[in-house]
Amino acid sequence: MVVASEPRGYHVYHDSRDTYSLSETVIEAVATIRNRDPTDDPIPLASIIDPDALDSLFANTHRGSERNAGHVVFLLDGLEVFVHANDHIFIRERPSDN
User: Fold this and answer.
1) Per-residue pLDDT tens for 84-97?
2) pLDDT per residue over 7-48, tens digit each?
3) Cα 93 to Cα 81: distance, rounded to the nearest angstrom
4) What letter does residue 30 receive in the DSSP assignment?
5) Contacts of 64 (CB under 8 A, 6+ apart)
6) Nearest-angstrom CA–CA distance, 50 and 52
7) How is residue 44 annotated by DSSP?
8) Is the pTM of this model over 0.85?
9) How does residue 98 score in pLDDT terms, banded at 50, 70 and 90?
10) Rounded CA gap, 73 and 80, in Å?
11) Gap between the Cα atoms of 27 and 39, Å rounded
């Protein structure tokens, strides 16, 4: 997994053919951005969104068709996480509420 720094945040591509689940990719990406080891300092994804539900949201349909539309946005560890059906994940610092 590569977390690419971009002017407005970070970009991660989740390869759905990989052995890692989508939720694991999100956790690893946030840990990388925050410079944390998720085995020593867990990223609290389950307190924000159900990891199994996130994994299922963009999984192939029962007929085997890919889901290629839609996205979900949530806050995690002070970051705004955008997960898209096309396996792209964008992460940025949470905008201030000024």
Assistant:
1) 999 999 999 987 76
2) 889 999 998 888 899 999 999 999 999 999 999 999 999 999
3) 9
4) H
5) none
6) 6
7) -
8) yes
9) low
10) 7
11) 11
Q: Are 44 and 79 in contact (CB under 8 A)?
A: no
Structure tokens at 8: 């407005």
How many angstroms separate the Cα of 24 from the Cα of each of 14, 16, 43, 85, 97? 10, 11, 10, 16, 29
Q: Which two tokens stand for residue 87?
A: 């396996």
Per-residue tokens: 27 = 């956790």
| CA–CA gap between residue 63 and residue 18 (Å, rounded) | 20
Say how many residues make up the chain.
Answer: 98
Q: Supply 50's token pair.
A: 């159900």
Residue type, 51: P
Retrieve residue 53's tokens: 């539900």
